[in-house]
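User: Sequence in, structure out. Go.
Assistant: Echoing your sequence, followed by the structure tokens.
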Amino acid sequence: MACQSARFERFGGILRTLLDQVKATRGNRVIALSVLLALSACSTLQEPAPLPARNQHPFQLLRAHPLPRAARAVPSGEVELASSLDWTSLWLSPGDGKDRIQLDGELLRADLMARFGLGHRLDLDVGIPVVHTSTGVLDGLVIFWHDALGLPQGGRDTVPRDDFNVRIEKFNGSTLTTIDSMPANATSVGDLPVFLNWFPVESDDGLCLGVRGGIELPTGDADRGFGSGGVDFALGALAQYNGGTWSGFAWYDRSWVHTPDQLSRAGLEFPVADTFGIGAQFGLSKNLSAIVQYEWEDPLLANLDSVRANRTHLLVWIAGRYRFSDRFGLDLGFSEDPITNLSTDVTFHLGFRVRL
């Protein structure tokens, strides 16, 4: 009880400080929130792990991108099942520039993942993603969300609601090529990821290190924007430090991505792309914890002459995690884009994990 009382006193004091920062940037607000959670951490974490979430930008989804995860292997002979649902509101107006990109609509992506413990600090991830596109219903909610938090609308509130458009306009000399990447109200599987993970350093109360590598098989419909049309490769590394009431995470991945034929014909080629992420989890009670994480990602549309496509993406994720038991947990969170006019607008995340 004393621990909880002290935690709430610290919470109240720092919350008053946060309310004084209404005019601060979004990045400063997230940093302040991270400090708040760190000071509020009061309970030892059980099986800490980052939020298994990624950028839901329609073109960034085409790359092999292993999800953030704990830097320790599933025990030999055990199987861990996980599922996540990401509901994303897309909005990106064409803006100025020689080439243009426009995003408007919603994506609903379900990721089903099985993780197999192989022994010798090895495990294997196999996933099945399913993506649904729609005109959606989130526009009004997101406009209200941005107004309430003092975030820019980026022109969303000046155009008709509940539309769908995922389009690139690429100029080659005097020739304009228009690519409508995704149809509205369509459902398809995505490319299937298979990753092998090895964790040479594991610790319950210290540093954990791991490496991983794998492929994505071309099971998605590349002609409709749900896959790359070829085998993609990725290599990466993970680090984690367990500090009792908190844990810190870092991950890095490099991907070699096949360029879909329709983009290649327009003179676009996907470059080798890197991802770097950091995050922290804080124990707020025996079963409840909070997660804050950042992820930077190279743009696959780096060769498009538009600052709304060729800059490094940055997303901030904030989530809560509840452990119902040692083998079952639930995540609920959202992401925002601190860099305006580039990434997806907002994503709501729901996920669960169960170990058999």
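User: And one key feature?
Assistant: The CA atoms of residues 199 and 210 lie 4 Å apart.
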